[in-house]
Write a structure and sequence with these properties.
272 residues, alpha/beta, 3-stranded parallel sheet, 12 helices, 43% helix
Length: 272
């Protein structure tokens, strides 16, 4: 019988708000796990959630963090002045970037709900949103109604190779998504020397050094989320220290080389 290896990037049984749908996915995952030899998750927390749902056995699971071309982000700082100029960001502006589809469950509403207060507290605060989606017209209306058009830069959808330079042009990465496996935006921000702020859902806490390179906050605690952003906007020295710690961490854990080496180890052991 061939060795069956299944890689899990996200939890299917948390995708819906309807319990019946999620329960159906649990049953399907249990069925599939019985026919697999190895289950590879992108975070320890995801593997635990699968086991807690009765999917597979502990000995089947391996964790392999998703890798990426780290050099594209670490070197993008060279393009920072030109990109900031194109985005109309002044030297003393503090830009908070979010890289995600403008879509339900990505959490942009959490930022908008406190945007007026944050902008009043921090005259130099700017938001940069990289990504596009069906909610863009609604977000643009909300921004206009608050009179904050000069505070937001909606970049739209960009080619993947352009993402590093937009991230590196900013100062803080905010990722308020409500469903993830382990958000790739978190290591991407840290590789570009940005502190990151996210919710502690699925595997996100494994994508940063809590309190040292970023914050993984209680799920959907919007007040805590924006409070951390406010702290970072106000403290350049802390941003830089956390950025240095985050880059060293992310280069080690999320490089393509590390991921490939770990996968090869699993394949050699389990497939032969």
């Amino acid at each position: 019988m061939p060795h069956v290896l299944h890689t899990v990037h996200g939890l299917s049984f948390t995708a819906s708000r309807r319990r019946l749908v999620n329960n159906a996915y649990v049953l399907l995952e249990r069925y599939a796990a019985k026919r697999c030899h190895t289950l590879v998750g992108v975070a320890d927390a995801m593997n635990k959630a699968m086991l807690d749902a009765g999917i597979g056995k502990a000995h089947q699971y391996e964790t392999v963090y998703s890798g990426m071309a780290t050099g594209a982000f670490t070197s993008a700082v060279d393009q920072r002045p030109a990109v900031r100029q194109a985005l109309r960001l002044a030297d003393d502006d503090v830009a908070v970037v979010t890289v995600a589809r403008l879509f339900d469950m990505k959490g942009h509403d959490d930022l908008l709900s406190h945007a007026e207060r944050l902008c009043q507290q921090h005259p130099n605060l700017r938001f940069v949103w990289v990504g596009d989606g069906s909610l863009r017209p609604r977000f643009e209306r909300q921004i206009a109604e608050m009179g904050l058009q000069d505070r937001f830069r909606l970049v739209g959808l960009v080619p993947p190779e352009d993402v590093p330079r937009y991230v590196a042009a900013c100062d803080v990465l905010a990722h308020p998504s409500r469903r993830e496996g382990l958000a790739r935006a978190l290591p991407q921000g840290q590789l570009a020397r940005l502190p990151v702020v996210t919710y502690d859902i699925d595997g996100n806490a494994e994508g940063l050094l809590p309190g040292k390179s970023g914050f993984a906050l209680p799920a959907f605690d919007v007040d805590a989320f924006v409070a951390r952003i406010s702290e970072l906007v106000a403290d350049a020295q802390r941003r830089h220290a956390m950025g240095d710690a985050g880059q060293a961490f992310a280069v080690n854990r999320f490089s393509t080389e590390t991921m490939v080496r770990r996968l090869e180890d699993v394949y050699r052991r389990d497939v032969g």
